[in-house]
Amino acid sequence: MATFNNNVPTKFPKLAPRGPAGDLVLAAERAKASFDPQDLTKFMYDEEWLQRLNRILNIIENEPAFDKSERYFLGRTDKVNQAYWKDKRTVELAKKHNWTEADVQMASFLWDQSSPFSLHSSMFLPTLKNQTNDEQKKLFLEPALKHQIIGCYAQTELGHGSNVQGLETTATYIPESNEFEIHSPTLTSSKWWIGGLGKTATHAIVMARLILNGKDHGPHPFCVQIRSLEDHRPLKGITVGDIGPKFGFNTTDNGFIMFEHFRIPHISFLAGYAQVKPGSGEYVRPPNAKLSYGTMVYVRANIVMGVRFALAKAATIAIRYSAVRNQFVDATNPRKWENKVVETAVLDYTMQRYRLLPIIAQAYACFFTGREMLRLYNENQKNMSSGNFSLLADLHASSSGLKSLCTTMAVQGIEDCRRACGGHGYSMFSGLGLFYQDYLPNVTWEGDNYVLTQQTARYLAKQFRGVAANKTSENELNFTSAYMYDFLQNPSSQCPATQASDFLNPEILLGAFRFRAASMTQKLVHALDNQGKSWNSMTVEIARLSKAHAQLILLSNFVSGIQNARNELASTSLAALKTMAMLFATHTIEQELADFLVSGYLTPEQASYVKEITLELLEKVRPDAVSLVDAFGLPDYYLHSALGRYDGKVYESMTEMAENEPLNHKLVTDSYEECIKPLIHAGKAEGRWNGEGMSAKL
Amino acid sequence: MATFNNNVPTKFPKLAPRGPAGDLVLAAERAKASFDPQDLTKFMYDEEWLQRLNRILNIIENEPAFDKSERYFLGRTDKVNQAYWKDKRTVELAKKHNWTEADVQMASFLWDQSSPFSLHSSMFLPTLKNQTNDEQKKLFLEPALKHQIIGCYAQTELGHGSNVQGLETTATYIPESNEFEIHSPTLTSSKWWIGGLGKTATHAIVMARLILNGKDHGPHPFCVQIRSLEDHRPLKGITVGDIGPKFGFNTTDNGFIMFEHFRIPHISFLAGYAQVKPGSGEYVRPPNAKLSYGTMVYVRANIVMGVRFALAKAATIAIRYSAVRNQFVDATNPRKWENKVVETAVLDYTMQRYRLLPIIAQAYACFFTGREMLRLYNENQKNMSSGNFSLLADLHASSSGLKSLCTTMAVQGIEDCRRACGGHGYSMFSGLGLFYQDYLPNVTWEGDNYVLTQQTARYLAKQFRGVAANKTSENELNFTSAYMYDFLQNPSSQCPATQASDFLNPEILLGAFRFRAASMTQKLVHALDNQGKSWNSMTVEIARLSKAHAQLILLSNFVSGIQNARNELASTSLAALKTMAMLFATHTIEQELADFLVSGYLTPEQASYVKEITLELLEKVRPDAVSLVDAFGLPDYYLHSALGRYDGKVYESMTEMAENEPLNHKLVTDSYEECIKPLIHAGKAEGRWNGEGMSAKL
Question: In this protein, which residues make up the domain named Acyl-CoA oxidase C-alpha1 (chains A, B) (predicted)?
């Protein structure tokens, strides 16, 4: 035991960082901007959204349950427990302030982590709203809306993710008692990965194979009570628990569940679509399944909008820190600050700009495409309700490719931003590490990003065949068949650019993206139809094709979105956005250069123009960099990053956060007595210099 | 409070997984192999290493301090405390079993995580060995070897990583008392990221600016006692602590330290190289600094060898799981098992092979290059001791590019393997998540991977200029200048391949890699010397050039390494390795296709041959996949992965590990009473169906 007071928290001496102070540096950066970030902010978020953000932020910033200061220090169990407090407090605040659903969503957006109740709101309630009859709404939805029952959505099994038709859990109808018997026949049939199921949910939407009179009708949804509403104990016949720690998402109790001949009443079968006649157990088919594709498009549109926030958050942190952080004096072009030569801001190194500025452009690209997807979703829903499915196929295929491309781009962008922050990017205080961990599942769920590309490519091939066989008349061309059609007018055309600056022309850029995607589709169709290649053997090219199509959509929506914003934005803001769009295009060509060269549309010389113009664009964007991320309007509470603070006080923040490290609450670590002292004192006998005599006394 | 016994651990019912059992599947895979993995294992590791591995493994597998079963569940503080026990026990075991340094390293290799004492062995001891005089060896090294003092290496500061010359900490000589005064003038001068400093080290090698009679001689090393050897308290004038949680490496107490006019005796200045005359404070220059470059090469060679293990570990887990995991029935080519049609193993999907098999090839490539780097290091050390520095420049430049390329490749490979495991790759039980987190710093430390590429490119440009100006005569050509020389003989030559199978010819493949690197060097030199481009403006191309050179070295060593192994390996093993080398080459060309096309050496048609042959090679490697990872001989204890077990019992292992999740040790979560019950019971008044009547009783 320590013979002194060991409970002395470590405090840093009150010293200033060397070099230009972060707040002054960022102020100077902001003064350089060619446009007013407020103008862009108001354009991207409507007034109502911004007011909501500030109103909710003011409330939760003062709520202990929403305090983030412990976030990076908690172990798994504490993370979950803290999330319970936040969930419970959210329900209370919603009552107290009469929060709308949008208000609750804003609170959870700002909190920026999943929680045990997340799936209750995002999956359980919507399923009950869409797939129940009136009696079931009264029985399940009403109490669920009041949190008198808490639910989750149990589809994935230990042995089956992507392949829903391969699910093993069965629901056998028992006419005698008018019940269903839910059963898990094997270990792999255990439901797995189910958010909120581990220790929280009282009910679960269970996807199980419907067995009627011995016939297997495939997976159908059941609303099943799994825990007692009196004492929360799992009901008899159920084995349920948490699946253990994950790479991220540890604030949620993702769970497993197994059923042993578990009986549920007939009413549990969600009768919104298909139905089972009581007694006879006769099966009544569901209506047009196509309708559900609409929902998928909606989910994916929101994922793309989420990618905008993900890239914006990562870029905000990395750009602000790269403006504040200095490294090396650039001898050829020394930086002056208050008439003294100081080290160069890392953001002024070409490679750092090349690594970071295109990520800002990607964020804006996702904003314009996400917005367009939501517009098309609404248009399509209206059409479908009047029996018009003309938009659906293109919309669904594009949304698959966009979800795949954009989430992969987001994960890459977050990690590129983290690495661009050097050593401190590896500290949890950067805010990028945990964010990366929590964001990562997006590349796997809602359709694995590789599997999804096959849906897109299958549609593109179909469109190409139609156009090639002149089955598609010019007036019925959509976005996709239109560029296939143009391509087929002249499949050997070449890019007209004769100098670097030609690549500032949107039409020249779009032409390259169109030709690339169309010619890759042609190659695929040729391989499948004329060379007898199997689909499986072409999946590598298929993934590339889907990416090419999605990148074309991103650029196309970016360009037209700016066009349509002519009257909503100041010319300076429009100019800044145009530069972003050009940078997005040329940087993407550089990244995918092989495709463009193989298609024969670009020559190696034109490729060198693209590299040249990309560097020029980076130069041009540089003075606007900080304002371009400011425009995303992400508050410090949301970022929770020592490196990304609006005021640029990076080093003060790093040291403050370090003072909160639990290991620093004692002078000498608890392990000293047991693990360190025995080794060190083993040598006490031998006389040896121990320095203390020569250092100042304690 | 629960009215029932809540301490009932959750247990899975004893059921078997559906489909072919994992152990039988892997046995069948192993039976398919075209070679004996043991043969490759013995070739890669010498007999002594394998015996050591088994001897040490047998000991630590039965040591509670080395138990890994809690690893994925621990929070930060517990991680550190567990690592202390493991460190202390290692010291005891080393005594008990007379472990050599190599034995200790093997134990830490198998443990596979950093710890508070890691830097004591890896940096503190080597520095004391190399940079001290005899008196200092007695004073510091001897007690350090016995763990009577524990040290760390304090160079990086809060404000300075890469730029060592920018360090701020000062060490001012005080002639009167023959002492140095260590001081931290600003907040940014705080030492930061120092492994083992946070709560452990009694001593630190501190890099501080040596100030003699007012003159600044730049950073020099001092051995400074920082904590009491009596009670471990930080000495007066020192602020020291842990820098807080990191993305990974949380088993180590990376620390910060600030000095307030802290006095240390003259003896603390490490006098191995430079010296300071007592009293006068006169500075005596160090010998040839070049010598230290040798050490850098050694460190980097070991990093490349480490990449081999990193990729081998990730690939072993992903390949075994992909062989066991089934998804979808492939209608065109249904899989039979015991005469029943079963789902297809994911490893039989082209995209999965494309994602995983090249990673095995990269691991073997790193083995051959790492081995060659070590050979050259030894040869160069011998040369230098006799004053011959001819090898140094090329070796140092290549090692920079190789460290940069290989560690980036490793991080990408680990993450690609994790994603290829689908949902379960996101579970910590996959073993890939924590591994990725802990491995990641390799891309930043020992030279940031982007900064390093400039060292390589600078050397390549120099070589090119020499050859172009005929300053290098043919007989003094080294590996690098030789391929520049060949290129300049015919800078517009083209790849002779006329059919896909030509890309199975090593000379044709090597020719392409040589031409690409040389022509990229030519472009860089032209831009710098003739177009007046600044170095900074070329850093994007510079990074690509360094990568091209490093990839050429990897392929070249791979091919020659197989050549030289003719007599050490069975022909079947040699054939398997050759296929690996081809796959490494063609897959790399595909990934970097733009470079090869822009150089004009490959035509788009030849590019299509490369894609074609790559798919053929994937087909050919497939039956050997499991045996190729078995050959790395990585024991289950080292992998600690539910998905990567040698016996393929994936689902049994996932569920066993989940049973250990602390949240599953109680039926009802502790948060129920406070956070869930109030919401649910709020509705008890209202009558509503609660299911229990209809389900079996508890």
Answer: 293-460
Closest-CA distance, B49 to chain A, in angstroms, reads: 29
Of B225, B239, B663, the CB nearest to A695: B225
Q: Are A353 and A617 in contact (CB under 8 A)?
A: no
Instruction: Sort out which chain B residues have CB atoms less than 8 A from A440's CB and list them.
Output: 426
| ipTM for the assembly | 0.95
Tens-digit pLDDT profile for residues A108-141: 999 999 999 999 999 999 999 989 999 999 999 9
φ, ψ for residue B91 (rounded to 5)?
-60, -45
Number of Cβ atoms within 10 Å of the Cβ of A186:
19
What does the pLDDT look like over A509-537, one tens digit per residue?
Answer: 999 999 999 999 999 999 999 999 999 99
Closest partner residue to A675 (CB to CB) among B72, B87, B593 is B87
Length of chain B counted residue by residue: 698
CB of B76 closer than 8 Å to CB of B244: no
Q: Which range of residues forms the domain containing residue A683?
A: 666-698
Tokens linked to B393: 């420049």
Positions of E strands within A338-494: 340-342
When pLDDT is averaged across residues A640-656 and rounded to a whole number, the result is: 98
The pLDDT tens digits for B322-340 are: 999 998 888 888 999 989 9
Q: Cα(B31)–Cα(B34) distance, rounded to whole angstroms?
A: 9
Mark which residues 49-68 of B lie under 8 Å from A by CB.
Answer: none
**Are β-strands B283-284 and B335-337 bridged in parallel, bridged antiparallel, or unpaired?**
unpaired
- pTM of the predicted protein model: 0.96
Same domain, B542 and B464: yes
Determine whether the interchain pair B188/A651 forms a contact, defined as Cβ–Cβ distance below 8 Å. Answer: yes
Note whether A91 contacts B679, CB cutoff 8 Å: yes
Same domain membership, residue B305 and residue B239: no
Q: B596 and B508, same structural domain?
A: yes
A236/B168 touch (CB, cutoff 8 Å), yes or no: no
Residues B222 and B361 in one domain: no
Side-chain-facing half-sphere of A529: CA atoms under 13 Å: 12
> Is the Cα dihedral A624, A628, A633, A639 positive or negative?
negative
User: If DSSP codes are grouped into helix, strand and coil, which group holds residue A584?
Assistant: helix
For helices B449-468 and B479-489, the axis angle rounded to 10 degrees is 50
Same domain, B254 and B324: no
Residues annotated within a binding site of A for FAD: 156, 195
Residues of B with a catalytic annotation lie at 446
The 8 Å CB, 24+ separation contacts for A327-330 are: A327/B160, A327/B161, A327/B162, A327/B163, A327/B166, A328/B162, A328/B163, A328/B166, A330/B536
Last residue of a domain, one of A240, A272, A287: A287
Of the three residues A583, A609, A630, the one that is the final residue of a domain is: A630
SS3 A171: strand
Q: Are residues A352 and A221 in the same domain?
A: no
- Other CB atoms closer than 10 Å to residue A492's CB: what's the count? 7
Q: B685: how many CB neighbours lie within 10 A of its CB?
A: 7
Residue A386 domain-assigned (yes or no): yes
Q: Which of B76, B426, B695 sits opposite A246 (nearest CB)?
A: B426
Q: pLDDT tens digits, residue range A458-493?
A: 999 999 999 999 887 888 899 999 999 999 999 999
B425 and B545 share one domain: yes
Domain assignment of residue B50, yes or no: no
Task: Give residues with Cβ within 8 angstroms of A483, minimum separation 6.
Answer: A514, A517, A518, A552
Is B314 contained in some domain? Answer: yes
Average pLDDT over residues B205-223: 96
Q: What is the CATH number of the domain that holds A191?
A: 2.40.110.10
- Quote the number of domains for chain B: 3
In a domain, A444, yes or no: yes
Relative to beta strand B275-276, strand B215-225 is unpaired
Q: Which strand (E) or helix (H) includes residue A398?
A: helix A392-420
- Indicate whether B529 and B431 sit together in one domain: yes
